[in-house]
Design brief:
The structure is a single chain. The chain is globular, with a radius of gyration of 22 Å. Helix 5 crosses helix 9, helix 10 packs parallel to helix 12 and helix 12 crosses helix 13. It contains 15 helices and 20 strands. The chain is α/β, with parallel strands linked by helices. The strands form five sheets. A seven-stranded mixed β-sheet has the order 7-6-8-5-9-10-11, sandwiched between helices. The longest helix is centred in the middle third of the chain and has 16 residues.
Length: about 450
């Protein structure tokens, strides 16, 4: 939402908006001339308002949405607006369950370094972009992180599409994996004739999707560039060398080697996707390599915050079991001689209930685990979700640990603040401590710095 506001302000459009509490983005927008209200009132809609742009997180009962409806103002989600604003652009959508923000940032930075001057909208903050989550550009290239929630990515008809991976998530929107696949099928079919798809063929669901659509894509002259596995795909290798991670892309007689400053196989896969799309758009090998080596990550993606009593403190946005497990493995690979301590705040009761069995083993690489109470997402939980608690995970994790012969501290905390306090009490010098989740846990740990 803040990226849309920045885009409009840069275009000279009068912008107002509201949020439930003040934060870094509301401050930035206020300083740039937007009228910002920290409240929910019908009066917040200006008399001269011509368009209401909303987030999916805002329910139909929102007082401002009701007022906009009473006045018959057009209403668009932020993604619907972006789809219309950039309808004539050469749009590249980055989609998948995990890694979208990092891949979008990397691709945008590669295009920027190559002088292709893209506009980029990303769901996190990129240190190299003065606007953080938004980079204004003058060319026809538009790179956007495509959100599958509420099928938002279907607002775009892209020239290029990156498919990182595909799993069940957003269980309040998608009843099962087949429903997720259907949305991605629709997205693939919206790629423009003559376009390009870069796809992680090592992901079985992505491979299945491409196999189903292969004939139609071929008939529309859409180039498919596969990586990660399978016949005809670029193979991805990743190994750690000192403080850098060497990533190689190999296909037939061609080999490309890059140094990455961010850890983990998942980041190597993100980098591979960005490289192959950038190459298809005309970026040179040196520009791609320089971007990858200088890239230190983005906000809340294994972000180093500092030290506390000799322990290294990181913040991470991971909230799906696969992302949790992958980040912990990356920490283990990067710091093989240190304890890994995890403080995790589950995000959304519906997700916790639906993916409960997957969450239990996702914490296996943590030597110490503190579970904060689940972050409530307003308006997105059904009645059946209300009884689930982080406390329910404790006995299931204990039994899982017993079966695998593991012994470790696993504790519950009723709030992010108490979870942070207890985690720091349990931390020892030389530990790697990760505060993870998409809710308030990040704010709670940043208070300590």
């Amino acid at each position: 939402m803040s990226a849309v506001a920045k885009l409009l302000l840069a275009a000279g459009v009068k912008v107002s908006g509201s949020d439930v509490r003040a934060n870094e983005q509301t401050k930035i927008l206020f300083e740039r001339g937007a009228q910002i209200n920290i409240s929910e009132r019908a009066e917040n809609i200006p008399a001269d308002c011509e368009l209401a742009i909303i987030t999916s997180a805002s329910p139909a009962t929102n007082k401002e949405r009701i007022e906009a409806g009473r006045r018959a103002l057009p209403e668009l989600t932020n993604f619907a607006f972006l789809g219309q604003w950039f309808a004539d652009a050469k749009t590249i959508v980055v989609a998948g369950t995990h890694g979208k923000s990092t891949t979008t940032a990397l691709l945008g930075l590669m295009l920027e370094r190559a002088g292709l001057d893209p506009t980029v909208v990303v769901g996190s903050k990129v240190a190299a972009f003065p606007d953080g989550n938004f980079r204004p550009g003058e060319s026809d290239l538009f790179v956007v992180e495509g959100d599958e929630y509420s099928r938002h990515f279907l607002e775009f008809h892209p020239y290029g599409l990156i498919l990182n991976n595909l799993e069940l998530d957003h269980t309040d929107v998608f009843a099962n994996l087949e429903a997720v696949l259907q949305a991605f099928h629709e997205l693939v079919n919206q790629v423009k004739t003559g376009g390009v798809i870069v796809a992680n063929a090592a992901d079985k669901n992505v491979a299945r999707l491409l196999e189903t659509e292969a004939d139609l894509l071929r008939a529309r002259n859409i180039q498919i560039i596969r990586f990660g596995g399978g016949v005809g795909a670029w193979q991805v290798a990743n190994k750690q060398t000192d403080h850098l991670h060497e990533m190689s892309l190999v296909k037939d007689a061609a080999t490309y080697r890059f140094n990455l400053s961010v850890p983990g196989n998942f980041n190597a896969m993100n980098a591979a996707a960005a490289v192959l799309m950038a190459q298809a758009l005309g970026v040179s090998y040196p520009d791609m390599g320089a971007t990858l080596e200088s890239f230190k990550g983005i906000w809340r993606r294994f972000e180093f915050l500092g030290e506390q009593k000799g322990a290294l403190i990181y913040s991470d946005y991971g909230h799906h079991p696969t992302a949790v497990a992958a980040t912990l493995r990356a920490a283990r690979e990067s710091f093989p001689d240190r304890r890994v301590v995890l403080c995790f705040e589950p995000h959304h009761r519906n997700r916790t209930r639906a993916l409960f069995a997957d969450f239990v083993p996702s914490f296996d690489s943590a030597d110490v685990l503190v579970l904060s109470e689940i972050y409530d997402v307003a308006g997105r939980d059904a009645e059946a979700d209300q009884k689930i608690s982080s406390q329910d995970l404790l006995p299931a994790i204990a039994e899982h640990d017993r079966q695998r012969g593991a012994g470790r501290a696993v504790e519950y905390a009723s709030s992010p603040d108490s979870a942070v306090r207890r985690t720091l009490e349990l931390a020892q010098p030389n530990d790697v401590v990760i505060f993870m989740g998409a809710g308030d846990i990040d704010e709670a740990i940043r208070k300590k710095f």
